[in-house]
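Let us practice reading a record.
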Amino acid sequence: MDDVKSTRGADKTPERPLRASGKKKKKKKPTSLPVKIIKGFGIFMLSLFLIIVITGSIFATVMTIYVLNFADTTTTVSLDKTETSNISRFLYENPNYDEEDPDSNEYELYYAIRNTNRHVAWVDIENIPQTVQDAFVYTEDERFYSHDGVDFKRTFAAFVNVFIPIYGGRQIGGSTITQQTIKLITGDDSRDSIKGMERKIREIFRSINVEKTYTKEDILQSYLNIVPMNTQKYDIVGVQAAANFYFGKDVSELDLAEAASLAGMTNMPGLNNPYDNPKGNKERRIYCLDHMLSNGAISEDEYKQAVNEEIVVTGDISFSSAAVYDDEDRDFGPTSWFMDAALNETEQRIAEAVGITTEEASERLRDGGFTVYTTVDINMQEKVQDKMLDASNFTTYYMDPEDDTLWSGFIAMDYYGNVKAVVGSRNEKTESRIYSTVTDATRSPGSCIKPIASYAPALDQDLMTCSTLFNDRPIEIEIDGSKQQWPVNYSEYGDDGNWSYKDITTTEMLQRSLNTLPAQLIDKMTPAYSYSFLKDKLDISTLEEADATYAPVTVGGLTNGTKLEELVGAYMIFGNGGKKYDVSYVSKIEDIDGNVIYEKTDGYKQAISESTSYVMNRMMQHVITEQDGTGRYAKLSNTDLIGKTGTSSDWNDLTFVGCTPDYVSGVWIGYENPERIPTNDYQNIGAIWKNIFGDIADSEPHKSFDQTFEMPESVEKLKYCKSTGLLAGAGCSNTAEGYYKKSNEPEFCSGYH
């Protein structure tokens, strides 16, 4: 037992023996506080350095990608068109264009927009004295002849000076003459912090590309011809126009003092020009001469003489801009109704493309030399304008013009939404950009709302066929807190009709414009669905949330009404397979450099199916062809027509929208201040449409929808029983033909009825 214990004891760690020398072991001194701080600070600085390196690398990568995205290195800026006009031209497709005739123009000038207060005159570089060239070069860009488009030394100095005012707070311009030329040509001059950075990057790369493409003389020539030299009142552009205006001379006759006077004002021409501010201009003249002297462009004697010379400013505005394009300098007079709409759209398109406001786009359009391709059919536009001015197309008898105060508007477009003609008034147009009953007015569409708000979406959902029988009876809805039967039917003669409680086919309901079936269809789909269909699928922009109820979407009692432009545009779905295209007055816009900044695409929204579109097309023919069809007065002699009349409940607004194989068009009449239209004084709305557009429609290329709208394979033409609305059986004698979606064909009638 004792042996065992001794073994276990041997496993224990022996006590540490004392050193033989008897000396105690030195204790390790603790690290002093300053050393810890220094060590910690070193670790912190190393970590911070690594973070900066990593962050810097990420930032550099991001900036590289960012720069490449906005470099625009593949597109240079053409200087060729700086010699051409700054006037923006609106063109139309020449109807007499002959591809085999070299003298035939594909496009003709429709209208030209110019800044009438802008004075421009071109001069070639060889006719600009070297003194004038040097004055601008050494004032604006001393290293112009040595850099490759960008003066990086100057650019860096300008950047640093923003944060560290090493130049005493004085602003240092970083743009070279090449960059300024590009900015003036493109109009790309965003001041926004982010967009401004993107613009500067584009400008740098464009400048480098321009320098590779053109000589220094080419660049300087362009710059000297487009540099702004304006006063506070007059818009002067280029050295030739400036020499004419300020000194009454040709640029070739300018002396050194006059050249320096012009070159010195370019930093802020409105404030430093010799016409408005002689004192400030003299300071800038001396600034220019100082730079010319320091660069050896003039001698000391020339410098002194130019500083002390008393220049004489004439302020001669008798000169005019030089016309470049044929016929562009003629007086076009007030804009047409079509041009008003085209201008509105063009300004919007430019604003969207460049990222500016429509007001800024308007200013840029006046000076920018844009080329705008319009959709107008010039012959149709002129004919419709004349028709709208003829009172006999509206009235039932001769009326004194003072008594005939009825307003009207008309628009026609193709099935891609390209507007061909538009007239916004019955009066002669004597002013530009005025109120239009087509694009500005919002009026009740009345029953014109029915095909697009109830019939088409219901047919698309297979809630009916062309022959489904519905009872002519009201639905019950809550009005003013109580359940009421609604709606009543309205007679085309203005007296309220009664409910017949008869079973009537959908086609007959549509042709007679009864209100009860649309109400029943809206009840099935819900007003909210119809509202969304109008807004999202058909682009009706005037809707309010309050319109998602029965009356607005059933009988057109909308809060704001609709614009005739949008109402007619919605009807295009009945002649093109259910496609909704944007309504457009402009097909393409090019800037002065020939770059396309907008072009209408082939994009569309499929509002309804092709089969629904075709069936609706055939149903709506009955509105025109049948004896009790509300649109029978619009029937044409040679051309197919489908359409719908619309009457507001109080007879304040009358509308007709008609579709021929080639065009969708519509007319509206009403008073400026809504009041009941006297039907004895004015013709039926269908007849008014025919008077304005009938002969144009009858002369269009296609006469029938069969030529332009092929029946889809998903649709069948079948006989139906008029007594039951079902497909006609062997025992049915009272039959008619209708068109049906194969996905929703009725059963066959048994013949027992």
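A brief commentary: Residues 715-744 form one domain.
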